[in-house]
Write a structure and sequence with these properties.
Layout (H helix, E strand, L loop, with lengths): L3 H11 L5 H9 L2 H15 L17 H20 L7 H14 L1 H21 L2 H12 L5 E4 L15 E5 L4 E5 L7 E4 L8 E10 L2 E11 L12 E5 L12 E5 L2 E4 L9 E2 L5 E2 L11 H29 L1 E2 L4 E2 L4 H32 L6 H36 L11 H8 L9 H22 L17 H6 L16 H21 L7 H24 L11 H21 L1 H6 L5 H18 L3 H6 L5 H4 L11 H9 L11 H9 L5
Parallel strand pairs: 1-5, 2-5
Antiparallel strand pairs: 2-3, 3-9, 4-8, 5-6, 7-8, 10-11, 12-13
Helix pairs in contact: 2-3, 3-5, 4-5, 4-6, 5-6, 6-7, 6-8, 8-9, 8-10, 9-10, 9-15, 9-16, 9-18, 10-11, 10-12, 10-15, 12-14, 12-15, 14-15, 14-16, 15-16, 16-18
Pathway: Lipid metabolism; peroxisomal fatty acid beta-oxidation
Keywords: FAD, Fatty acid metabolism, Flavoprotein, Lipid metabolism, Oxidoreductase, Peroxisome
Catalytic activity: a 2,3-saturated acyl-CoA + O2 = a (2E)-enoyl-CoA + H2O2
Amino acid sequence: MSLQAPKDMAAERDAAKFDIEKLAHYWAGGEERYKHLQRAFKFMASDPELVMQPPRNILDTTRPEIREFTMGQIHRYAKVLQDPLYKNDSDFKEALFQALAMYSESFSMRIGVHTALFKNVLNMLGSDAQREQWLDDIENFRVIGCFAMTELGHSSALRDIETRATYDMATDEFVIESPSITATKWWIGMAGKTATHTMVIAQTYINGKHYGHNWFVVQLRDRETGELMPNIVAGDIGAKVGRSGLDNGWIQFRNVRTPRTNMMSRWVSLSRQGEYTPAPSPVVMYATLIPERIMLTVNCVGMVTQALTIATRYGVVRRQGHKNEQIMDYLSHYGKLVPAVAFMYMTHSACMTVNEQFKVLTAGGDMDPMTYLNHVGDMHAISACFKGYVGWFGSDILETCRRCCGGHAYSAYNAIGSLIDDWGVLTTGGGDNVVMLQQTTRILLHRLEQKLDMDEYPELQFKSSTHYFTKAKEYVAWSNWTVTNVEDCLKDLTLVEDALHCILLNSISNELKTGSTHNDLLLDEARAAELHGAAYMFSDAVSKFGSVNHADPALDKGVAGIMHRLTALWGVHVLHTFSDQGYKEGVLSPAQIKAIEKLYLKLCKELRYQVVGLTDAFGYPDFVLKAPIGKYDGDIYEPYFETVLNAPSSTGKPPYHAKYIQPLTTQGGK
């Protein structure tokens, strides 16, 4: 054991100016949820069906092995849900799901397809009778579902999907058909080998007339034999960059029949005689994408915080250079990692807010259609924005973490590489990030036009992500940011809020005036959406932590204090990142931009010695992180070497020695 490394790690924890465990309670959603999560970690740690046990290493598995292991996790998890010991313990069951999702991205997405996608379509678009018919089977895994939206030739452009559902009045059934190869449902998680049923979106035809998109439950496989149903052709799409435990698949429907009652009918209806009543707006058919994007953003947080935990721990125990310094002491190191940690705390806080807002939407049956649509529009804007913005920035952070660990992060055994591989789907799956950001900006433009031209703003049951648009005329009229001493912002964080909102609203206001096409403005629109997302996270945090004295009284003072500091850093980070846009819009002067950069670097340095405590609070046990260089106690080198020694065929001569090496090394010569 290296004696210095554990000492360095202990000193970093001692330097924390807050109670790490209490911050961990906050991160977990409260002390009780934290305790349930620890209980779940303890439960799964030694269970070979849930966690791969040494000397086996999950990072050394083949595709067939990880597929079987991941399905075994789901089987074991389902049995725990049904176990009389845990059946009524909803807190533990929720914690176990969360802990397993942290341990395995394949488990997270494989079961997420079933619960967050398939089940949520039923909850959001299904009638009471349909929920009564299906929910119990879904929740007990008698029905295993998938979500058939993307096609081989169509992804983000949903209006162009080709799959058809034609009503046959004679049999009271819909006929589902894939009319071409490009209509093949593609990338469908759980469709490859597992799902018994799918929720499929299709172009709907009734009495020869096209009625747009609808969702249908279609059975894919016999629940007893696992064989495909008649006229269903499906398979696995094979090797992927990451998430090999998930059986992404393809589906072709060859005149497959499904009952009329399997069309989701909360917002639409179709009588036996073929009389169709459409939804109040086609938008409701896409409301199911909102929980997917929220889920993907939460998934992003889980992956990035693991990488940050590994990188920060390695950064404080690795010493090098002329003075044998901790590499975390270099500005080039902490200047990259500290803002990334702040970003995760901001994203986590904002996701909690958005999750609460989503509950308003799922309970929206009592709203009139127009009010519901306004809520859908707002939730679509922020969920698409988060998915795009967090997806791109998270990609940068993961690569930063890999680089901050030097060559050791190139080893698969230190886990960051597998996180990067598993991450890739998050930049395109659930909607391409560029398209997500573009859609966000279009909603921003619409809301701004409403406010500037008609002085209208929709009333919602929660604080909208575009609430600052109510002051749009004031912000657009600003000539510049009047702050002379940038450090005054630390006393009043709303000064930073005002600057960010002013930059953004002037940017999109000017876009309205150009008359250019969306394609010409695509890069500007994407950047505007990123600023909207970053500013929303900041505003959300300011409302919670902007004043230590006015934070939630249930929050520990030390936790409130560190969250206030992270909020301040995040606001200044965003202002620094978008200072060029601020200059372009005439909001920021060169002197202010220089002062912002100086303050930003100062705040990064002040939080450098808090970074281990901040990442400890993410709460990952060593077996979840899977990285020897990220061990909690700082003793990284011996476990790393032992992991390599346990790797398959790591010592001895290779089996191809006699065939390829020996003939070369024993050939004649001088």
